[in-house]
Amino acid sequence: MAESTQKLFKRWRAGDQQAGATMAQRFSDWYYAVAASRLGDRDGRAPLDRACRRFSEGITSLQDVDTLVAWAHEIIVEELAAAGGRLSGGDQPNALTRNQSPTALLQKARERLEESQVRLLVHAYDAGYPLDDLKRESESAGGYPLAVLEARYALKRVLRDELGVKLTEVPDGRPRLDLAPLPLYEAGRMSSVAEETAFEQWMLSEMALCKDLAEFAAFALALRGGALAGSPVAPTTTSSEGEVSLDIPEDTGGSRLPLLAGVVVVVVVLALAAVFLMGG
Known about the structure:
Layout: H1 5-13, H2 17-43, H3 45-58, H4 68-82, H5 102-110, H6 115-124, H7 131-138, H8 146-161, H9 182-187, H10 193-203, H11 207-224, H12 263-278
Helix pairs in contact: 1-2, 2-3, 2-4, 2-11, 2-12, 3-4, 3-12, 6-8
């Protein structure tokens, strides 16, 4: 079992440089997952960069381990709020999609899914669709919200196995029950800010969940825009400035998340690690 973030913090405060570097990477991965899920890889870059810099500047003066997670979470939430909070939809190709349109990939995947799975995903990621209706539709597939989570992973398997998207966080059997809120979070359908806050803070202790969110972020964004609907909006054209080069070096300083954010995150990760290594 991975060492808790709180223990890493205490070890770093006691002078353990490796604990500081590990903690820096963990917070950077977490921040990226939250930013990419809410705003997509492209639009999430600037607030992610600002949040990482604020974190690196403030962590050296933080003394109380009990306030660490809440303090760090407030930083990323503030930066994302200033950038718009959460996009309602969009099409942001990236290195993981090999610069193909996520909307176009989802439309291909639609033909390989069961119609009931497509319906659940379309309605689940449409924040305006009545929740009571979604719950009724989920009953025959195992109940809400687990049925939606299973449909999400069915979609990920199609993208991975039939369309060549290199996704890694796809369970072979039934998904963990505690992950049931995952698609609700991606869709922006959690019942309250407090519930969303609790989920995001829990993510810091579940790095596989962070990776799941990060690698699916482009598709979740497209789903929120209706990419699986019968007549989805045409994919948004992205400028070359918004694309991620496929020639980005593979070494991300030990990050466990897919290389989606490019050089900006790599530089910030190294800067964070340097702060920790020089601190103590």
